[in-house]
Amino acid sequence: MNPSTTDSVLGPRVDNVDVKAVGTATPNAPGSKKQPTIIIIFGWLGAKMVTLCKYAEAYQKLFPSSAQIIVAADTLRYWKPPIAREKAVLPALKKLQELNVLSDDRSDDPPRILLHAMSNGGLMSLVDLARAIRKRDLKSPPGTKCAVILDSTPAPATLPLAVRAFTAGTRGLVKKGLLSLVLAVVYFLTWVFRTIARRPEAIAQAMAALNDPDILPFTSLRTPRMYLYSTADNIVPAQAVEEHAARARMVGFPVKMINFRKSSHVSHARDYPEKYWEGVREFWLEALAQ
What we know:
- By secondary structure, the chain is α/β, with parallel strands linked by helices.
- About 45% of the residues lie in helices and about 15% in strands.
- The chain has nine helices and seven strands.
- The chain has a seven-stranded mixed sheet with strand order 1-3-2-4-5-6-7, with helices on both faces.
- Helix 2 packs across helix 3 (about 120-135) and helix 3 crosses helix 6 (about 200-210).
């Protein structure tokens, strides 16, 4: 199975949009009961919608009965205050309400939800959405199932890792050096502001929130998660991912891990499409069986 190399099957794509709904759930289609009702893809910082739509295309091949929501994260998302980040994910919350995912009404066919967060930017968007839902005290139908995929995340936002992440696409030593200097200054000023205001660092806060069984109205200690990572990732080190997975196991979450070893940051699907998407398919079927 290699859905990541197919042509577009989702129609027109939209670039530079924070949230995009893709496809429509078809609950009565053959085999639909073994597929997610809704898949939410949380993109990494700076990922263009046209790039994230390639993941949606792969998912459409894998789970044709599923509706999808893509949540993009602009490059500056990390530096924005919580209220601005929450505003960016509100269209996704509205779409979930339209799909009756955020309703405590009983249903003969409760929703099945697959969350796919990419890098720390995707993790932030997931947690921002969770906070927006909790803030409004929204519920989900009894019996709702959920599974979480963490692709190239999480890792603490240290200065060296931040510099690697934000300069990854910059060419030329001079440009990269100047950008690194600017990032160091901004990082220091942000640290000073957080210290004075006594605000927690966003990624550290998101990493802790991820191990809260009740982070979303449809999650619990029984919610399985899968970490997709690589030893060769120099932005989110394998050790950081493995440490977070170990803490998740200690809390009581069912945890699965796939180390792609040689692929770079958020490149596992591109470099190992068969292994990647077969891993996703198997993980979802295992999640349904729990």
